[in-house]
Design brief:
Layout: E1 3-5, E2 11-15, H1 22-33, E3 35-39, H2 58-63, E4 66-67, H3 80-96, E5 100-105, H4 108-115, H5 126-138, H6 140-150, H7 152-157, H8 163-175, H9 180-185, E6 192-198, H10 201-218, H11 220-229, H12 243-250, H13 259-279, E7 284-288, H14 296-310, E8 314-316
């Protein structure tokens, strides 16, 4: 299947589930296309979560400019709407300087926020948020029914067994934020070639296990303990995978020996949800990777980009 994009795209989007190697692919493309990377990850915005969020390393940032990353303290709240403002400004600035914006991420909402003009309320309505949180806490079944009534597509897409995700979906539906249908049908704000990295689930699971081991070796537990101790730490950064698990381990309710598998299990669930986003993005051209190194996709996508910028409007073929 190919994705239809306008002729001469000005923005390159790279989507892929966690651990597929999209960060390495985006970095390689930036080097080859004279590009700069706009990171679509709510946790990479926070200083102090570099390991947990798998943020770009100093050596990588020395080679390629990265935007909307490491720009918030742990005490700052954030939202998809605030991210969209920052991401749009970054994309426009990159284009104004004659370079290629590479918008990369695995968080579907944030990727669409960066690429599209979605109608986020600003600032978020705290009264609506409190109402949604309260309804989910008091009666999850009633909250799920309310979400189904307000936004059936969101009800079908969200994990209603996850209280936080149910509450946020209900908040969006009640406050005029983009509906689930809007997220997948809204046009790109600029001509965009969007590619999606694909790997078999078994390969993704193996890569996730490898990442968890690496992050633990690099000091993930110490990093998250420091975040948990931060005076006035905001709610949003503590939603990162690992924070609740480290808190449980320190509280004596999680055996340290069980931590690696608990982290891997949560990350696998995240990857599955991201795969659901991928299946609902018809404007994304698939790039199958199998079990090949992520860098192998760079040349393929580079060819797709050069073909797209010189072709008339129509379907851009998927990678072979």
């Amino acid at each position: 299947m190919g994705a239809t994009v306008p002729a001469a795209p000005r923005v390159l989007g790279v989507f892929g589930p966690t651990a597929t190697g999209k960060s390495a692919v985006a970095h390689g493309l930036a080097l080859r296309l004279d590009g700069e990377i706009v990171v679509c990850d709510p946790f990479q915005r926070y200083r102090g979560l570099e390991i947990a969020a798998d943020s770009p390393r100093p050596a990588e940032r020395a080679e390629v400019p990265y935007h909307v990353v490491g720009d918030l303290d742990l005490t700052r709240s954030s939202s998809a709407g605030a991210f969209a403002v920052a991401a749009h400004a970054a994309v426009d600035d990159i284009l104004a300087r004659g370079r290629v914006p590479i918008v990369a991420g695995g968080t579907g909402l944030y990727l669409r926020a960066a690429l599209c003009d979605l109608a986020f309320p600003s600032p978020p309505d705290e009264a609506v948020r409190a109402w949604a949180d309260g309804l989910v806490a008091a009666d999850p079944e009633a909250a799920a029914d309310e979400l189904r009534r307000r936004d059936p597509a969101a009800h079908a897409a969200v994990d209603v067994a996850n209280p936080r995700r149910l509450a946020r979906a209900l908040e969006r539906a009640a406050s005029g934020q983009p509906t689930a249908t809007d997220l997948f049908t809204a046009p790109h704000r600029l001509p965009t070639l969007l590619v999606a990295l694909e790997r078999p689930r078994a390969v993704i699971d193996a890569l996730i296990a490898r990442r968890v081991r690496r992050e633990l070796d690099e000091g993930l537990v110490a990093e998250l303990e420091a975040a948990l101790r931060t005076p006035g730490v905001a709610r949003e950064p503590l939603q990162v995978i690992g924070a609740a698990e480290v808190a449980a381990m320190r509280g004596g309710t999680l055996d340290p020996d069980d931590l690696p598998e608990r982290l891997a299990a949560r990350t696998r669930r995240l990857a599955r949800r991201q795969l659901q986003w991928l299946r609902r993005m018809p404007d994304a051209a698939p790039v199958p990777l199998g079990d090949a190194p992520a860098e192998s996709a760079v040349a393929v996508i580079e060819r797709m980009w050069h073909a797209a910028v010189t072709m008339p409007p129509g379907a851009v073929p998927a990678a072979p």
